[in-house]
Design brief:
heterodimer; A: about 230 residues; alpha+beta; nine-stranded mixed β-sheet; 9 strands; elongated; B: about 200 residues; mainly alpha; about 0% strand
Chain lengths: ~230, ~200
């Protein structure tokens, strides 16, 4: 065997330098084991408690990133949602069982055109654009006044809300499907011991209205047109 | 009357029964409370670990102590072993860490004596073999500790660079550089020695 350093290495990997073969063989030669090595190791091991698999806890940042909850957190959140839903829907169902509603169209609302147009026509203006607008407004007013007899239909209908039930305190309404729209409170007129009525203006295109009785929104009530 | 032979210890029976199982399955058995399965792991990897420790420390007694301590630590923390890793690589990491700790404590990692490898080779009745061991010890003692680790793991244990990275905790690029520098240093040392 050559003793020249690195001349006869059999372990070179694609240009990688390697120590000489004799050195590699010496490194790979088995070392002398003590006969009782295994016994000593097992004696120490058997004196230790049984190990258990460890699962590293997930860091909080990772929890938030993955959007996961612990088991208890999930149960508590679900219970809170269920409680809120039960309370909210329970009130609605209880009220709906003892209150009946209707929305009857009485007719169209109308506003006098002449006074509106006159006010707009006599407003002080200075610019050329305003003067052109005033001429258009005057001509429109004249043509509509001639056709409708000084009355102009607007986009509202007069609707009578009928509420039958007990324990009513306040009633408001809003367009159905517009949960975030403004609720308009109406003044109830007592007709009998269990019936209240109120008149209000409802947009012409409103098919349903949602009545809010005692701060609880009921199911949508259809706006019933008058019988022909 | 035939001579009575004493029955083998229970862990020996378990070790022979579990010899066909993979390391990961043996680890699962250990975690399930079968301590005897650990004996099979000891039988399977003790010689390997002892060879690495001997090459790194250059002292048979220290190497034996370190390997024993490494196995005990491995048993204690075997719950952290991930089956995605090779068990031997995971175990060698413990051995290498123990060797570092021992070397730091006793300052023998860099002050290796030439004669300490006497009697370490199993089948070394020939003087040539012993001489080579001593020359190896002298040469390795001249290397920096991290270079010694790199060259022992790369050429003594034939680990890939990825496995070496797992064992040592160093990056692959750094390990390649260490191997290159260790070989260069050994070349210089042996040239001076032969001349």
């Amino acid at each position: 065997m050559s003793r020249f350093p690195f001349a006869d290495s059999g372990d070179a990997h694609a240009g990688e330098p390697a120590p000489p073969r004799w050195m590699t063989e010496a490194m790979r030669a088995p070392s002398a084991e003590r006969s009782d090595a295994r016994t000593r190791i097992m004696a120490r091991v058997q004196a230790l408690p049984v190990p258990h698999r460890l699962v590293a806890p997930m860091p909080m940042a990772r929890w938030r990133r993955r959007g996961t909850l612990s088991g208890l957190g999930g149960v508590m959140l679900t219970a809170a949602f269920a409680l809120m839903l039960t309370v909210r829907e329970g009130e609605r169902f209880t009220l709906a069982s003892r209150v009946h509603t209707a929305a009857l169209v009485l007719g169209d609302s109308a506003v006098p055109v002449a006074s509106h147009m006159a006010d707009a026509a006599h407003a002080p203006t200075t610019s050329a654009t305003s003067r052109i607008g005033r001429r258009i407004s005057d001509s429109l007013s004249a043509s509509l006044s001639a056709g409708l007899g000084n009355r102009l239909l607007d986009t509202m209908r007069v609707v009578e809300l009928v509420v039958r039930g007990t324990g009513l305190q306040d009633v408001a309404w809003r367009r159905a499907g517009d949960a975030h729209g403004p609720a308009r409170t109406v003044a109830l007129a007592r007709v009998s011991s269990t019936e209240w009525r109120a008149r209000t203006l409802v947009p012409r295109d409103a098919v349903d209205v949602t009545l809010i009785v005692n701060d609880v929104a009921l199911a949508p009530t259809p706006v019933t047109p008058p019988l022909p | 009357m035939p001579p009575q032979t004493s029955p083998p210890p229970p862990e020996h029976e378990a070790a022979s029964a579990g010899a066909a199982l993979s390391d990961a399955m043996l680890v699962q058995q250990v975690l399930a409370g079968r301590v005897e399965a650990f004996a099979t792991l000891v039988d399977r990897h003790h010689a390997h670990c002892l060879r690495v420790a001997t090459n790194l420390l250059g002292n048979a007694d220290d190497a034996d102590d370190v390997v024993q301590e490494a196995f005990v630590r491995a048993y204690r923390h075997i719950g952290r072993y991930s089956e995605r890793d090779r068990f031997l690589a995971w175990l060698l990491r413990i051995v290498v860490n123990q060797c570092r700790t021992r070397a730091t404590r006793e300052a023998r990692y860099t002050a290796l004596e030439p004669h300490v490898h006497e009697g370490l080779v199993v089948d070394g009745p020939d003087a040539a073999h012993t001489d080579r061991r001593e020359e190896l010890a002298v040469a390795l003692a001249q290397l920096a500790p991290e270079q010694r680790e790199a060259i022992v793991l790369r050429f003594g244990e034939e680990l890939s660079y990825d496995e070496m990275a797992t064992v040592t905790g160093a990056g692959v690029s750094a390990l390649k550089m260490r191997v290159q520098r260790a070989c260069s240093r050994l070349r210089t040392l042996l040239s001076e020695h032969l001349s």
